[in-house]
């Protein structure tokens, strides 16, 4: 195991100085061509906000199972709600994941025309004071950060710096709280099986309990420990396709932790009607894929993950 993911300070992406922005873009582009994983510093999300989010996640998972089941993902629909321990299997060749999760998606104002699109819907909320407001404000902060990082990707790929802005303004992004109970004697299963992420970009906050591992190009596993003040970030399958495979979406997994482990993932998938047309700024690299919509692509990936779960669970 090695530890060699780069740390990238993204604050200069907010600078009026184009050369400073380009420098960050080049660092992002290098990381995305190598492992597709990097740490983000200078993200501007306050430590107190992250601490409050971890507290909220722990309060959520500490509720009785019955209360959590009332918010079950299969009742709520649209990839929102609570996923019980053992109900998800990211690696179809392994045992189900030893984790529980809670998802929210974008909240559209009442009457917004985009309500008719796929993956729209209402969030389900637990009866916990302050939880909803905190989750929604964190969602917005992650969306702003993810959009900023996409400006770096665009610069690096030789595109207009703002080309992704309109593909991400009403996204299918999911904010997901995750809880991994400690490894127990005689219980099989990974924390999260080996997988790649589906969307464009994942912003992950981890709590300091070891678990996340990333597969390097040479097949060796790289540890991705907590670095104070940083998010662990990676690109997903949708951005890999969008970049015409210039960027790589890399397999990763979570080993069963020694103690309770909590993480908070923001999966930035594009707008459902965004057209994912592979980038062809490099004339020596013709398009490898036909265009698809963001929703078509996400649905195809979710179908694979949940195929093993009996419909009636
Ligand atoms: O919890 C983690 O550290 C990573 C989780 C993950 O990779 C995922 O849910 O896609
Ligand atoms: Fe992942």
From TrEMBL:
The keyword Iron applies. It comes from Lichenicoccus roseus. Its cofactor is Fe(2+). Keywords: Ethylene biosynthesis, Iron, Metal-binding, Oxidoreductase. Its EC number is 1.13.12.19, 1.14.20.7. Residues 170-270 form the Fe2OG dioxygenase domain. GO terms for biological process: ethylene biosynthetic process. One of its GO terms (molecular function) is 2-oxoglutarate oxygenase/decarboxylase (ethylene-forming) activity. It catalyses: 2-oxoglutarate + O2 + 2 H(+) = ethene + 3 CO2 + H2O; L-arginine + 2-oxoglutarate + O2 = guanidine + L-glutamate 5-semialdehyde + succinate + CO2. Belongs to the iron/ascorbate-dependent oxidoreductase family. PANTHER family: 2-OXOGLUTARATE (2OG) AND FE(II)-DEPENDENT OXYGENASE SUPERFAMILY PROTEIN-RELATED (PTHR47990). This is 2-oxoglutarate-dependent ethylene/succinate-forming enzyme. Pathway: Alkene biosynthesis; ethylene biosynthesis via 2-oxoglutarate.
């Amino acid at each position: 195991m090695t530890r060699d993911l780069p740390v990238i300070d993204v604050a200069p992406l907010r600078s009026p100085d184009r050369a400073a922005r380009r420098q960050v873009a080049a660092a992002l582009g290098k990381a995305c061509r190598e492992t597709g994983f990097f740490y983000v510093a200078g993200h501007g999300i306050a430590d107190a906000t992250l601490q409050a989010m971890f507290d909220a996640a722990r309060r959520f998972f500490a509720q009785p199972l019955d209360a959590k089941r009332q918010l079950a993902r299969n009742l709520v629909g649209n990839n929102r709600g609570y996923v019980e321990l053992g109900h998800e299997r990211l690696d179809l060749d392994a045992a189900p994941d030893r984790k529980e999760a809670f998802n929210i998606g974008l909240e559209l104002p009442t009457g917004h025309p985009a309500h008719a699109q796929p993956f729209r819907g209402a969030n389900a909320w637990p009866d916990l004071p302050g939880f909803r407001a905190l989750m929604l404000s964190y969602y917005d902060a992650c969306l702003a950060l993810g959009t900023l990082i996409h400006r770096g990707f665009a610069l690096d790929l030789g595109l207009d710096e703002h080309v992704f802005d309109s593909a991400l303004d009403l996204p299918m992004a999911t904010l997901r709280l995750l809880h991994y109970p400690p490894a127990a004697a005689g219980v099989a299963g990974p924390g999260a099986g080996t997988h790649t992420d589906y969307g464009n970009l994942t912003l992950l906050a981890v709590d300091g309990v070891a678990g996340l591992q990333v597969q390097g190009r040479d097949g060796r596993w790289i540890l991705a420990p907590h670095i104070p003040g940083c998010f662990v970030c990676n690109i997903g399958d949708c951005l890999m396709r969008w970049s015409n495979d210039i960027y790589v979406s890399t397999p990763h997994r979570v080993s069963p932790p020694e103690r309770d482990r909590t993480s908070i993932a923001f999966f930035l998938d594009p707008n459902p009607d965004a057209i994912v047309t592979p980038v062809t700024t490099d004339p020596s690299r013709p398009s490898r894929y036909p265009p698809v919509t963001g929703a078509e692509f996400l649905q195809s990936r979710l179908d694979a993950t949940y195929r093993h779960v009996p419909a009636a669970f």
